[in-house]
Fold:
Amino acid sequence: MPACVQEISGRCGLSTREVAGVLQDLHHCGLIEHATTGEGFLRLRKDPARVRIGDVIRSIEAVRPMTPKEGAFAPMFDMAHAAFVDALNDYSLSDLATLSGGEATGAGFVTGLHGVSVLVPG
Structure:
């Protein structure tokens, strides 16, 4: 089933304000949508097996750009960050749930590692 901010907040151990900010970013990226089942409910737009973690990070960074780094190490950190995000694309949201001890086969929240919840289409 789709979930609301309060449910996600309770499962992730974050404030509703923090969750609302992340969800707003994910909505702007086109990763989640408002569910037709109720006011204020959200759901993932794609199958979690098709959503790559690195792509999620890049999408969020596109709507919430980081402050440009300066100094001699900036190019090195940029390359390291790019390599890290590329490596994250080896995993999907479904993989994340599985790796953290959860399961991504049912509808609703998939929980595993403390603080990690994946909302799957219902």
